[in-house]
Write a structure and sequence with these properties.
This protein has helices spanning 8-11, 19-32, 53-61, 76-88, 95-111, 129-137, 141-158, 162-169, 177-182, 197-222, 240-261, 264-288; strands at residues 4-5, 38-43, 46-51, 68-71, 229-230, 233-234. The protein is of the alpha/beta class. α2 (19-32) packs across α3, α5 packs antiparallel against α6 (129-137) and α6 packs across α7. This is ParB/Sulfiredoxin domain-containing protein.
């Protein structure tokens, strides 16, 4: 029999059993033997293991005989897609694992030529990948798209810390999916090394702060910053203290108008000037940073 080869890339493509699940499987194989065949991909005279990594380890460690079943694939991407569907057929996936695999399938299906994006027949309306997967898993399209972000974020973590990714999927480390998705908006991730859980949370915090900072500056840029001429000078070219004093005067004037007239127009004018004041101060803080 040819030797079986384990490719780490394929082994890490699936979530491992928990310690309890592994011990139950080990006890079963030692007492009853390995009843299920190991699935292998025959490539270039090699047998590459694609399903049964735990059974193979238990059998080799305890000198227990096992059977193999050969499967045919065009390339490693096709193998990964088969493994993915095989995992989605398991009944013992926790919600985070199921979400990860759904998102991964969405990513892989979109990339595959001839995937769901291209499914059509005469008289049939094309359905998007997200729509088809939402029907397959009985969830909403928005859930499928959130799953995609979740899987992409976990794979980003896995680039430098695969153990941390598995700890999250195994439920050993609790993280909000929305927090992990924030990582996809971070800059310079290609230079990241995520050391541990604390480092991951720190990077999420910094990313959130940077996004809020950009949002504040964008709001400032969108606000109506047109001022009337003061002594023949556009107020845009005044120093900040002068602009703040001008806004202060307009706020006081708007307050007096609101008290006197008690109308929506005066209230709108007051809110507009307060918004200008807030953004003027925030923008100045960002510039100093």
């Amino acid at each position: 029999m040819k030797n079986i080869r384990i490719i780490q890339e394929l082994k890490e493509h699936i979530v491992p059993l928990s310690k309890e699940e592994y011990q139950l499987l080990r006890k079963s194989i030692i007492s009853e033997g390995c009843r299920e065949a190991l699935l292998v991909w025959e490539k270039n005279d090699e047998l590459i293991l694609i399903d049964g990594h735990n059974r193979y380890q238990i059998c080799t460690e305890n000198n227990i005989r096992y059977r193999t079943k050969k499967m045919v694939f065009a390339d490693i991407e096709e193998v990964k897609f088969w493994m993915l569907n095989n995992q989605l057929g398991r009944r013992n996936l926790n919600p985070d694992q199921l979400s990860y695999y759904r998102g991964l399938k969405y990513c892989m299906t979109k990339k595959n030529k001839g995937g769901y994006e291209n499914v059509s027949s005469k008289g049939q309306i094309d359905l998007s990948t997200s729509k088809l997967l939402s029907k397959e898993f009985n969830v909403s399209e928005s859930t499928i798209k959130r799953d995609e972000k979740y899987s992409m974020a976990l794979n980003l973590i896995s680039e430098t810390n695969p153990k941390l990714k598995l700890q999250i999927l195994m439920g050993e480390i609790k993280m909000k999916k929305s927090d992990l998705a924030i990582l996809l908006q971070a800059e310079g991730t290609e230079d990241w090394v995520i050391v541990n859980e604390s480092d991951l949370k720190h990077k999420i915090k910094i990313t959130k702060e940077n996004l809020e900072r950009k949002k504040s500056i964008a709001q400032y840029d969108k606000v109506d910053t047109s001022y009337e001429l003061v002594s023949g000078v556009d107020t845009l070219f005044l120093d900040q203290d002068s602009r703040l004093n001008l806004i202060k005067g307009k706020i006081l004037s708007a307050v007096n108008s609101l008290i006197k007239n008690k109308d929506k127009s005066s209230l709108k004018s007051l809110k507009k000037q307060i918004n200008k004041l807030e953004l003027e101060v925030l923008y100045n803080q960002e510039v100093k940073k």
